[in-house]
Design a protein that fits this description.
2 domains; EC 1.2.1.11; 6-stranded parallel sheet; aspartate-semialdehyde dehydrogenase activity; 15 strands; Dihydrodipicolinate Reductase, domain 2; 13 helices; single chain; 361 residues; globular; 7-stranded mixed sheet; ASADH-related; Asp_semi-ald_DH_pep-lack; alpha/beta; Rossmann fold
Length: 361
């Protein structure tokens, strides 16, 4: 595989920092440029994030002395320096949409962690193990944008990564209804306990917009392409509640699922389907792909956030406590690392898939 020069737009925030750590020693990607807001621009990266490095791993040396570019005013310069960019900016949605389209029109592909384009109907929103075929919509998007190389691809909301992968191999049994309660770490809000002391010993039963995303985004992942648009699936129906909990990293979900009458598989069959589930990233042996995507724990008290969030470098999904339910057919719990599988790592895996399929060439 050739080497790709990579830019990170929004490199000073928590997800941007995670992107930078994931570029260190990546076999395909070379960190070449970092861009952020005007207040950070013009300074070496280490100086721009001084006192704000939020991760428990050190800043990569290759990033320290890169001079931060202005994401808006230096767009042409950045686009000329790299093969593609990751984007994780903190701006208003309409501003993000405009910024990402501007880079795409400059023939710089964008792999976005932002939610702004998730419902643009010719922008693929991809979990690589679930709907890699949606990348085919990029040709229609390029026609709309008038580009040869440039496009936008996005990853889904971070909380979906914990429960949708476990539901995906069970859809074939006639999955009809899903109730999910998510328990989401504070890094999902870009915070640490030092910056958000009111979260210590606390649980907040509200995350703005999160329940709507949790109920609707799975239907786009499971949708199909028709007339140059991604049409969302008609079901199953979802209902969700989302809580912010006092964990630094790791989104957990309690899931209840109901199948069409008489079609519910056995618990043994569900566990077998989870164990056997492989996607295109595993078949292609992409660098960031977990060897085993879904890990099932038989212990009654697993998965646990602190013990299991870093499974397979934070790119696997942990599942446990599958059992019958009194109102639904079954219930279970699952866990994923929200800034790795759920955010930056999921976007890096998506970029690897795009490279393997030739979309970055």
């Amino acid at each position: 595989m050739k080497q790709y020069k990579v830019g990170i737009i929004g490199g000073t925030g928590m997800v941007g920092q995670r992107f930078i750590t994931l570029m260190e020693n990546h076999p395909w990607f070379q960190l070449t440029a970092i861009a952020a807001s005007a207040r950070s621009a013009g300074r070496p990266y280490a100086e721009a994030v001084e006192g704000r490095w939020a991760l428990d791993v050190p800043m990569p040396e290759e990033a320290r002395n890169l001079v931060v570019l202005d994401a808006e005013n230096d767009a042409e310069q950045l686009a000329s320096m790299v093969d593609f960019c990751f984007c994780a900016v903190d701006m208003k949605k309409e501003e993000i949409r405009a910024l990402e389209e501007r880079y795409a029109r400059l023939e710089c592909p964008i792999v976005s962690n932002n939610s702004a384009h998730r419902w643009t109907d010719d922008v693929p929103m991809v979990v690589p193990e679930i709907n890699p075929d949606h990348l085919e919509i990029i040709e229609a998007q390029r026609r709309r944008l008038g580009t040869k190389r440039g496009f936008i691809a996005v990853k889904s909301n971070c909380s979906l990564q914990s429960y949708v992968p476990a539901l995906h191999p069970l859809k074939k049994y006639g999955l009809e209804k899903v109730l999910v309660c998510t328990y989401q770490a504070i890094s999902g809000a870009g915070k640490t306990f030092q910056r958000w002391p009111e979260m210590v010993d606390n649980c907040i039963p509200y995350i703005g917009g999160e329940e709507e995303k949790s109920e609707q985004e799975p239907l786009k992942l499971w949708g199909h392409i028709e007339d140059g648009k991604i049409v969302k699936a008609g079901g199953p129906s979802f209902t969700a509640q989302c809580f912010r909990v006092a964990c630094q990293d790791g989104h957990m979900a309690a899931v209840f699922m109901k199948f069409a009458d008489g079609k519910a598989p056995s618990m043994e069959q569900i566990k077998a389907d989870w164990a056997a589930f492989r996607g295109v990233p595993q078949e292609l042996e992409l660098p960031s792909a977990p060897k085993q995507f879904l890990h099932y724990f038989e212990e009654p008290d697993r998965p646990q956030t602190r013990l299991d969030r870093n499974l397979e470098h934070g790119m696997a999904v942990s599942v446990g406590r599958l059992r019958p339910d009194t109102q639904y057919d079954y219930k279970f719990v699952c866990l994923s690392h929200n800034t790795l599988r759920g955010a930056a790592g999921g976007a890096v895996l998506l970029a690897e898939l795009l490279c393997a399929k030739g979309y970055m060439d």
